[in-house]
Amino acid sequence: MSVKIATKTQVETVLDKYDTFLFDCDGVLWLGNHLLPSVVETLTLLRSHGKKVIFVTNNSTKSRADYVHKFEKFGIKASSDEIFSSSYATAVYVDSILKLPKDKKVWVLGGSGIQDELKLVGYESIGGSDPTYNKELDLDDPESPIYHLDPQVGAVVVGLDTKINYFKSAVTMQYLNNPEIPFLATNIDSTYPHKGLKLPGAGTCVETIACASGRKPLTSCGKPNPSMMDAIVKAHKIDRSRSIMVGDRLNTDMKFGREGGLATLLVLTGIETVQTLNQLEKDVQPTYYSEKLGDLFELLQ
Ligand SMILES: [Mg+2]
């Protein structure tokens, strides 16, 4: 059974047991444009106890540098090396796990966040935000990129592309005709929330390409895939037995933490409720739950 964090002693126990705190962002730190109570104080408290703090988001359209600005707007101090987006997770995967040679290029169907992160680990990417592809596919043009694939492309990455079109999809598919070229997804979320709307997520771009190419992605680098946890552990050299994943979703955040060998803390400020928590089998319940992240700070006062 999950233990509810409701006393000062329980907070002290959590502070004793864990050195690294991984956080989902939306629904944990903020809800849309609204910062949740005592979040800044809790993060400051953890840092003052020497805890490592890592932020884990499935949004691949932004780079870590873009996220630093978002955090600043909320008054949260974070450095780019504390932020793990699926764009960065994908770049680390290509570099550390796929071990793609640095003279190879990556074809990207997705946003500039992916390209920025690939560049930081030393890969040239093509496609992505290149405006060349923001038009109709012209099969009568002998110069069209669809007839001139770059032989240096050694991997294909697909994430959320808000300008996805037939031209880009067709070129992506041509690269995947080569079975030697790995197909990676940044994440496979079917939707993402924005200003009260549910919008098509990265998974819809991935499925378009999977359907056309007849191939499934080798991996999806975002939560809850263990490859993202492997990449975090590798980049930050964390001890899984002394780390805890904090999130508001059972099927991504809590699954990600549990299957990655971490303790888990579910906060009830986002998707889940006590009812959805109680419907879970005991062996997959989070280690802890609390009404909100800020309770860690408030209970200690
Ligand atoms: Mg969330």
In words, what does this structure look like?
- With 301 residues, the protein is an alpha/beta fold.
- It has two domains: 132 residues, HAD superfamily/HAD-like (Rossmann fold); 134 residues, HAD superfamily/HAD-like (Rossmann fold, 3-Layer(aba) Sandwich).
- The protein contains eleven helices and 16 strands.
- The strands form four sheets. A seven-stranded parallel beta sheet has the order 1-16-15-14-2-5-6, with helices on both faces.
- Helix 4 runs parallel beside helix 5, helix 4 crosses helix 8 and helix 6 packs across helix 7.
- The longest helix is centred in the first third of the chain and has 12 residues.
- The radius of gyration is 20 Å and the shape is elongated.
- The mean pLDDT is 94.
Overall morphology: elongated
Oligomer: single chain
CATH class categorisation of the largest domain: Alpha Beta
Share in helix: 25-40%
Number of helices: 11
User: What is the domain total for the residues?
Assistant: 2
Estimate what percentage of residues fall within beta strands: 15-25%
Q: SSE order, as H and E?
A: EHEEEHEHEHEHEEHEEEHEHEHEHEH
The CATH H-level superfamily of the largest domain is HAD superfamily/HAD-like
Low-confidence stretches: none
Tell how many strands the DSSP assignment holds: 16
Biggest β-sheet: strands ordered side by side in the sheet = 1-16-15-14-2-5-6
What is the makeup of the main sheet? 7 strands, parallel
Bound molecules: magnesium ion
